[in-house]
Design goal:
Blueprint: H1 33-54, H2 58-71, H3 76-88
Helix pairs in contact: 1-2, 2-3
The structure holds zinc ion.
Zinc ion binds next to loops.
Length: 89
């Protein structure tokens, strides 16, 4: 189980990928950092869930996976991990 890769954030106006360094649109220079935070929220929780599992803390891992899926319902690795934990619980 490895951390998921970084998501791409598109400028809602230009439909081009934001610059991951500046978190701004390379075309219109719009600040897209809020979008980045939204896009990353589920992954941050997912990665914390992996850390918790690694430390043997299943309860925290379950909590983190549920908030990861609340932030990003399409985050398949989090859903699969949550389901596998619930089966073995
Ligand atoms: Zn733009």
């Amino acid at each position: 189980m490895s951390p998921v890769t970084d998501p791409e954030v598109l400028c809602p106006l230009c439909k081009v990928a934001a610059d991951p360094q500046s978190l701004c649109c390379p075309s219109c220079r719009e600040d897209l950092s809020a979008l980045f935070r939204l896009r990353y929220a589920g992954r941050i929780d997912y990665n914390r869930a992996l850390d918790a599992l690694h430390a043997g803390d299943t309860a925290t891992a379950l909590f983190r996976l549920r908030s990861a899926l609340a932030a990003e319902p399409d985050l398949d690795p989090a859903r699969e991990l949550l389901e596998s934990l619930l089966v073995t619980e």
